[in-house]
């Protein structure tokens, strides 16, 4: 791949950084995180008017049909500004899955999503049984309709979503997956907010006899496995770009602090150990950035990327705790105060601990794919 960004990509990143630095300073970020939805619906619609939400959607659905890598570069800037939003889950995840699945009425919904008028999120987790095995909601036929019963945990922004892309199985056949589009307003749908440190406002989605028409079915059988795998790969890759953006800000702030903070009559950045810390942080960040770019490029080109996704996510798991520990150590006592902006970015960048799959899964995938 060519790691040099083209002119369009450079302009996209520059314009996004300029806009976000003006409209989303840290004070505003704190206000948005405290909002009931976990983000600003007004800013979300403004992103829609800028064309960001439909950036990678097909033109027939009100999008710009840009490559997935361009979308990832925009997500990197959202991470750099620490903007809380459902962009990753709704656009890179459920939105692109809907565009890929196609079907009756999908373009109309995607057009509304691209404008910021609708919010569609994935519901893939299910719940765990007594032996730790995943249990997905079950589907039974009722004439031409589908009836869904079951529960999904950790549904991002579930309390604000208008639609869910829901993974289920045929009743009594756990190895026969099906994928449905469920309106949040459907009778039998209950959303319960979960307490969490995460910005994504995770919820418990309960489905009790939810009846869906035949056109609610997105895919079944092996096609479901392919669609969900690609969607998870895109979300994992996009999450790593978000982390790159957040860590970039952390490194910039840490270097600036080391230049300005004086101890023993001189800037602490003149001390060799702290210089080594900053150099180590730079190396870790550049490694993660290159791995993310390579993964995003392969996904944009439609190439197999299971191994690349596993590698970049495993690397994120490995370097983020060390990177943040060095940043907080250089900041000293200031770095552990909740009033310092570093707190916002540490929470954001520590996504491998709660937004990605366990490290062991990525290591196994990287070694066996």
In short:
The protein has 369 residues and is α+β, with helices and mostly antiparallel strands. The protein is built from eleven helices and twelve strands.
Q: Would you kindly provide a written description of the structure presented here, covering whatever features stand out?
A:
Strands 1, 4, 5, 6, 7, 8, 9 and 10 form an eight-stranded mixed beta sheet that branches. This protein has three domains: about 5-120, Butyryl-Coa Dehydrogenase, subunit A, domain 1 (Orthogonal Bundle); about 120-220, Butyryl-CoA Dehydrogenase, subunit A, domain 2 (Beta Barrel); about 225-369, Butyryl-CoA Dehydrogenase, subunit A, domain 3 (Up-down Bundle), CATH 1.20.140. Helices cover about 50% and strands about 20% of the residues. It is globular and about 80 Å long. It starts with 6 loop residues before the first helix and ends with a helix. It contains eleven helices and twelve strands. With about 375 residues, it is of the alpha+beta class. The mean pLDDT is about 95. The protein has helices spanning about 5-25, 25-35, 40-50, 70-80, 85-100, 105-115, 220-260, 270-300, 305-330, 340-350, 360-369; strands at about 120-125, 125-130, 135, 140, 145-155, 165-170, 175-185, 190-195, 205-210, 215-220, 260-265, 265.
